[in-house]
Design goal:
The structure is a homodimer of 158-residue chains. Chain A is mostly helical. Chain A has 8 helices and 3 strands. In chain A, a hairpin with a 5-residue loop joins strand 2 and strand 3. Chain A starts with a helix and ends with a helix. Chains A and B meet through helix 6, helix 7 and helix 8 of A and helix 6, helix 7 and helix 8 of B. The structure holds a DNA duplex (30 and 30 nucleotides).
DNA sequence: TATCGTCTGACCATCTCTGACCTTAATTTA
DNA sequence: TAAATTAAGGTCAGAGATGGTCAGACGATA
């Protein structure tokens, strides 16, 4: 039995799939009532399952008549790579976010399953810990390695 | 009378055989309860009986509604990989040798061009020099990263 | 009896969910 | 029209619910 977060994610993705627009609009309070949970649970779902790394954009407005809009982003066919690299450098480097990004790249057939597995190894901390590097330095190296690797992929078409 | 590990292994393999999917999904806690043992026993079984060497891949998720998925892999390509990894570990790690190896793997169509480019980035010293690591430590990290990456390729069939 | 495979339990990491408190926008009221 | 009220949504710390790791006890067997 899936958990609440999975259920709400499913529901929103179905709404998106049915929508004529490239987005859906909901009210946090209403949605929370529908799933019998606290409103902040909705924010949790949005943060975890509808992040930019996963290909979504969320807008909202507070106050009377407030709303939340969830946009499905399309990677531009022209140069998906630049976008990916920029989205990686835009926010702080964070292994879990990178893994989500890799999953999405695989789902959108921008990289192969094997490539996503290869790139995922770069995000692991184990080796650096064993060699006595600080977490900070490890993260810096990971970030750079990932950038170099993505630059390589950029050079060679599928 | 077979032991617990054997029983749990049997049970999971029967589940796999019956499953329509190429995997089964269980909950560690539930499974442990079913066999009246501690949860970590499940990890032991997975490690010993469902390892990549034996042709399985295990994924999991923690937290509420967590799960463990066990995938049955195709093992046809497993053997050439073991040789490659062992040839890498047999002699001292040396970037130039690795590049030759990657070239050969590409020529023999064991890895793709893109994969060889990805793996090649791991052998570069630049990043480590910038971060002030000794050449020795850099080489050690490169060696381990490469090993992990090759292990990943071993897991995933094309 | 030495060794190797099993099994346990304490402690850790991660993901989910809630509730108290905060911010913002629209509407009503003085 | 300015202030007060109402009606949204946002943030964050902490509790709860899983699964992971590891050292060491235990047990079978050569």
């Amino acid at each position: 039995m899936p958990n609440l977060t999975d259920c709400i994610e499913d529901y929103l993705k179905k709404l998106l799939a049915l929508s004529c627009e490239p987005y859906v609009e909901v009210q946090r309070r209403e949605l929370a009532k529908k799933f019998a949970c606290v409103p902040s649970q909705i924010n949790y779902v949005l943060e975890r399952r509808f992040s930019p790394e996963r290909g979504y954009l969320v807008e909202s407005r507070r106050g009377g008549g407030g709303w939340i809009r969830i946009f499905r982003l399309k990677t531009s066919q022209a140069s998906p790579w630049r976008e990916v690299i920029e989205s990686l450098n835009g926010r702080e480097y964070e292994p879990s976010r990178v893994r989500q990004l890799l999953k999405r790249l695989y789902e959108e057939k921008i990289i192969s399953r094997r490539e996503s597995f290869l790139l995922e190894t770069v995000t692991r901390d184990r080796i650096y810990e064993e060699k006595g590097l600080s977490k900070k330095k490890a993260r810096e190296i990971q970030h750079e390695l990932l950038n170099e690797a993505l630059e390589e992929l950029l050079k060679v078409s599928y």
